[in-house]
# Entry
Amino acid sequence: MSIIKLPRPLVNELLHQAQRGADCEVCGLISACNGVPAHCYPVPNIAVAPQQRFSMDPKAQIDALRHMRDRGEDLFAIYHSHPTAPAAPSAMDRDEAGYPEVLYLIISLNTRGVLEMRGFYIQDQNVTEVALELL
# Structure
């Protein structure tokens, strides 16, 4: 299992977003500079049932990608939360994963008082978990 190193301030930001939007799935993008995770770009969830799935606002997603490009950054990860489910890709997450080279981070609020975040690569319905390490 490979190890992905994430800066603690970035992880704290992701966990805080998940807690603030506890009733709905929060989502967004994470950029990297020279392969090192750098910035979080929250994107509004416009899903019809945001409590159970996420769908990124297309304009906000394009704006985030444009901002990354302007800063010389690359897309590193896509993140979202699961308010009532484990931190594992759902069948819908696997079906809709369109970036096989990008890490998918899933944050679960399923356990009271404890947030769980796990990372996966998803390619052609195949899910490979990676270990996450805080820097």
Notes: The CA atoms of residues 16 and 22 lie 10 Å apart. The chain has three helices and seven strands. The longest helix spans residues 8-20. The two ends are 18 Å apart (CA to CA).
